[in-house]
Design brief:
By secondary structure, this protein is of the alpha+beta class. The protein is about 40% helix and about 15% strand. The strands form two sheets. It has a three-stranded antiparallel beta sheet with strand order 3-4-5, covered by helices on one side.
């Protein structure tokens, strides 16, 4: 079981892990041992996440979100299978915690009277400078 916060926990059946061989340097160890982890979370079918959180999670996940509605997190940072597993799980928890925070609604504001006057005064001054650049009539 993976604990996100006091209200949300992810059950083990929602997560599946697959260990694959890591890429990059590592000598013989890389060729023999499957240390990289591929963590798959069935987010779309998860009963523990509310609908708005799922939509925000989908937007945050980007390419890691599959067409079936699963979130796939890969980790091959270390040579240890257990450590890679911890890192992948921590990344999942962090991503879900980010999705839990609802974005603040933007409050439409109007420019102040002073800022309008300053803008128009600056435009007028700029126009006067450009007018002085014209041909001199004799």
């Amino acid at each position: 079981m993976l604990r996100i916060n006091d209200d949300i926990t992810i059950e083990d059946w929602e997560l599946s892990e697959q260990f694959v061989r890591a890429s990059g340097p590592g000598g013989q160890n890389v060729n023999k041992v499957a240390t990289a982890v591929e963590l798959r979370f069935e987010a779309a079918r998860s009963p523990s996440l509310p609908g708005p959180v799922k939509t925000r999670l989908r937007r945050l996940a980007g390419r890691r979100w599959t067409t079936e509605g699963a979130l796939i997190i890969q980790c091959d940072e270390t040579r240890s299978q257990a450590r890679n597993r911890e890192i992948a799980r921590r990344r999942l928890v962090d991503l879900i915690r980010k999705a839990l925070v609802a974005p603040k609604k933007r409050i439409a504001t109007k420019p102040t009277l002073g800022s309008k006057k300053r803008r128009l005064k600056a435009k007028k001054m700029r126009g006067d400078v450009k007018a002085l650049r014209g041909r001199i009539e004799e």
